[in-house]
Amino acid sequence: MNDLIVKDLHVKVEDKEIVRGLNLDIKQGEIVALMGPNGSGKSSLANVIMGNPKYNVTKGEIYYKDKNILELKPYERARLGLFLSFQYPAEVPGVPLANFLRTAYNSLNGSKISILDFKKLLEEKMDLLKIDKSFSTRYLNEGFSGGEKKRAEILQLAVLNPSLAICDETDSGLDITSLKIVANGINKLRNPEKSILLITHYNRILQYIKPNRVYLMINGKIVKEGNAELADEIEKDGYEKFIN
Questions:
Q1: Rounded to two decimals, what is the model's pTM?
Q2: At 17, is the secondary structure helix, strand, or coil?
């Protein structure tokens, strides 16, 4: 089974401990929401899972597909099926979105897909997500609105087809129309083979994407786990109720 298991994870950046004994698991096919206030360590956890060298794991284990991924380089984790949708996607002037995606697709799969076959694949995914074809010729994120950047991230998820996608505050900065479009895209990609870790501050995206489970993270630890009702409780009472 393609489960992610995080055990007693401790992480430092320089001399500051930002993850303090975290335990978490995501089963194959689940959508799991990770909620928490600013500075709780949610994005740090995402970066640690993907292998960002800025973060120093001082204790603990992370297993995916029965492999200790802490021993793997970032590109090896990507080839294993891990994907991170960034909170603040970078602009890459001069690189069309289609070219970027084809290069990433070839790198992940270890072989070259023909331009014609990739065009067909890309257009199928754009049709699925209701994205205009002209989107693929624009330079990656350059001049994109916040909503367009997030839709580009979801298109990457669709084309690269990871088995575990980490969506880091995909709802950040989106108006209600863009939020619905992005949520609908994630729902269309949902299937029994794909797991999603949805990192968010707010309950609003969870009104459109129903998680199997919800984790609450505060001060580098998971302080509560529950179902979708936990997100409603957080929305109603705020985070202060759970801060010791």
A1: 0.92
A2: strand
